[in-house]
Amino acid sequence: MRKVIVELDDNEVEVEVSEGDKISRLVDELDIDSESMVFTMDDRFVPMDEEIEGSCRIGVHRVVSGG
């Protein structure tokens, strides 16, 4: 197990992850509405099924649609 930092709504949460865990596991654990969010890992956009690699920061960003 190792810890990663998840940035969510101007807060940082430390979460333990195992080898092979994907971002989708964090979505479930933190009860994130993934329909309106995009994810970054070490400052690059990633899909929810991306494996969490090494020690990293994961950003959860709300999608804002303009009109």
Description:
10% of the residues lie in helices and 42% in strands. It has one helix spanning 23-29, and strands at 2-8, 11-17, 37-41, 44-46, 57-62. Strand 1 (2-8) and strand 2 (11-17) form a beta hairpin. The longest helix is centred in the middle third of the chain and has 7 residues, at 23-29. 15% of the residues are buried.
Notable traits:
single chain; about 70 residues; mainly beta; Ubiquitin-like (UB roll); five-stranded mixed sheet; 5 strands; about 10% helix; about 40% strand; globular
Note the topology:
Layout: E1 2-8, E2 11-17, H1 23-29, E3 37-41, E4 44-46, E5 57-62
Parallel strand pairs: 1-5
Antiparallel strand pairs: 1-2, 3-4, 3-5
Spans of at least 5 consecutive residues whose pLDDT stays below 50 are none
How would you sum up the major sheet?
Answer: 5 strands, mixed
Task: Compute the CA-based radius of gyration.
Answer: 11 Å
CATH topology: Ubiquitin-like (UB roll)
- In CATH, what is the class? Alpha Beta
Our estimate of the beta-strand percent is: 35-45%
By CATH, the superfamily comes out as Beta-grasp domain
Instruction: Tell me the helix content.
Output: 10-25%
Q: What is the level-2 CATH architecture name? A: Roll
Shape assignment: globular
* Average pLDDT taken over every residue: 89
Total beta strands: 5
The string of secondary-structure elements, in order, is: EEHEEE
Structural class: mainly beta
What is the end-to-end distance? 43 Å
What count of helical segments does DSSP give? 1
Please indicate the count of domains.
1
Which strand order does the major sheet show? 2-1-5-3-4
